[in-house]
Design goal:
2 domains, homodimer, Rossmann fold, about 325 residues
């Protein structure tokens, strides 16, 4: 497997997945522009299939496989969005998907995987929450037992190239952006989109946005080496993972800065997007919005694209206090 | 003032407001199509300016006025969406808007009006909730004191023609629909869109959808005369009003049926749209979705457009039980 990710690989991914994914809309809001004193373009990956940008990487990975590789299915480990996205992509190709999930996964995430026909394999864990080693061990066992092909949620060049296709759509529609802001967890999205921007729009400053409470990308970026995350406790459940050994060097090379935001700012940015844009975003998507509202990035007077990465929220548990009937 | 509403009036409205409103997207969801066994096209007026289709009618009314008529501003009475929409349209033309609102209006509705620079006039009321006579009396007093021009939220041909422009966009994109479903409160939207469909797409069955708990349009339609609503208690706060003497005859003439849905079905349809389409809709928008899910309309195997009328929800008060942090 080729471990570099090039613009060409992203173009190939676009061709491969074009009929499988949605070209998501870019939305604007006058009131949010006024609040930020900037022109903000929201790339709505929350309106992507399976409600998340990860559909791009999952389709690209699944459709990159030869028939011989694909026949025994694919396997990944995820408690969240990757689980549903890979199950959907596999079901589209008519192959099985095995998803290693923790027993504590949200009911909404579990039922999304089942809706797409995915096979859930529970991760055995010593603690309340499985470690990444325990996830990997379960996925490896499934791989041996079934012959399924592993697809990593972010540390995989096919996944990264797939996520990068989102940036091709942004550059097509908004060719002269001052800033591109994306959330960063494992770094698959940020690695993919920064590869595209550095190649096609080098003047755009690409900024990774992360919760203070899960700031491994911030620390890794500034230290120049991977500093793994310990005990992330952020509301942005999609961003609790650490950078991988494949995503980190790409991000180091292509990204202009990584900034962090508070939990409070994430929740109020999320609520504000629901209120003003009328779209449902998950907390991870609110992280770059919070970075603008907290003035962590000097966007005044500039044009800014923000990737709203996903919209998969447990509507029975909101991060703000809401009165029920 | 001409009291009929023709297709020509809707075309004129479209020309008048084209640069002022958004052409809203039509969205689809595979999982909702599967649930309904139909091809459903959601016209997202929740993504309209001010978060509601009423921007169309408000802009059309405000920009229909001559300079001499407009100079002293406009006045309306509303506790909800019309208030913000008219304030926005008036501010866009640079004229004052006076909005007669009840003292019990939601804080989110009040602040939306203030954000657009509207002048709030509190409705004096004997009871806890003002009667429509008390609303009208306040609006009439403001009209006398200020010389402002009255714009009725639904019982006004300019308002109705403006709302009809939504249907022109639907017919452009989906010319051979079997069904068009829209919520009905005062009937401005349903009167406008049914006028367009009967003229341009007569084979499409146009269905008004209403809460059982505010079923005046259902009873009026089937009785052949206006049966006013008493004490509506539905969660669909945008649909508590009764048909007007202008909207009722248009609806009688153009609409194929009016159906009703339960409160429970409205809340679960609303939640389902948030979850699957990832857009925020208010309870009123969920009413036609509920009509499909409750099989009140025989849509199986058919193509169906549903107007998602608005997205203005008080995010601190949800109609389902959600746990807070």
């Amino acid at each position: 497997m080729n471990l570099t990710v090039t613009l060409e690989a992203v173009h190939e991914a676009r061709t491969r997945i074009k009929e499988l994914i949605r070209r998501t809309p870019i939305m604007t809001s006058e009131s949010l522009n006024r609040m930020a004193s900037a022109d903000i373009f929201f790339k709505c990956e929350n309106l992507q299939r399976a409600g998340v940008f990860k559909a791009r990487g999952a389709f690209n990975a699944v459709y990159s496989l030869s028939d011989a590789e694909a026949i025994r299915g694919v396997v990944t480990s995820s408690s969240g969005n990757q689980a549903a996205a890979l199950a959907m992509a596999a079901s589209s190709r008519g192959i099985p998907a095995y998803i290693a999930m923790p027993r504590g996964a949200l009911e909404s995430k579990i039922s999304a995987v089942r809706r797409y026909g995915g096979n859930i394999v529970w991760v055995e864990s010593q603690g309340a929450v499985p470690t990444s080693e325990e996830y990997e061990a379960t996925a490896a066992r499934v791989q041996i037992e079934t012959g399924a092909h592993p697809v990593h949620p972010y540390n995989d060049p096919r996944t990264i190239a797939g996520q990068g296709t989102c940036a091709l759509e942004i550059v097509d529609e908004r060719p002269a952006l001052d800033f591109l802001l994306a959330p960063v967890g494992g770094g698959g999205l940020l690695a993919g989109v920064s590869t595209v921007f550095k190649a096609l729009s080098a003047a755009t400053r690409v900024i990774g946005c992360e919760p203070e409470m899960a700031d491994d990308a911030y620390r890794s970026f500034h230290a120049g080496r991977i500093v793994p995350q310990r005990n992330p406790r952020t509301v942005a459940d999609g961003l609790r993972t650490s950078l991988g050994d494949l995503t980190f060097p790409i991000i180091s090379r292509n990204v202009d800065d990584v900034v962090t935001v508070s939990e409070e700012a994430i929740v109020s940015a999320m609520r504000l997007v629901w209120e003003r844009l009328k779209v449902v975003i998950e907390p991870s998507s609110a992280v770059p919005v919070a970075a603008v509202l907290e003035k962590k990035v000097p966007v005044a007077g500039k044009s800014v694209a923000i990737i709203l990465s996903g919209g998969n929220v447990d509507l029975d548990h909101l991060p703000w206090r809401a009165k029920s009937p």
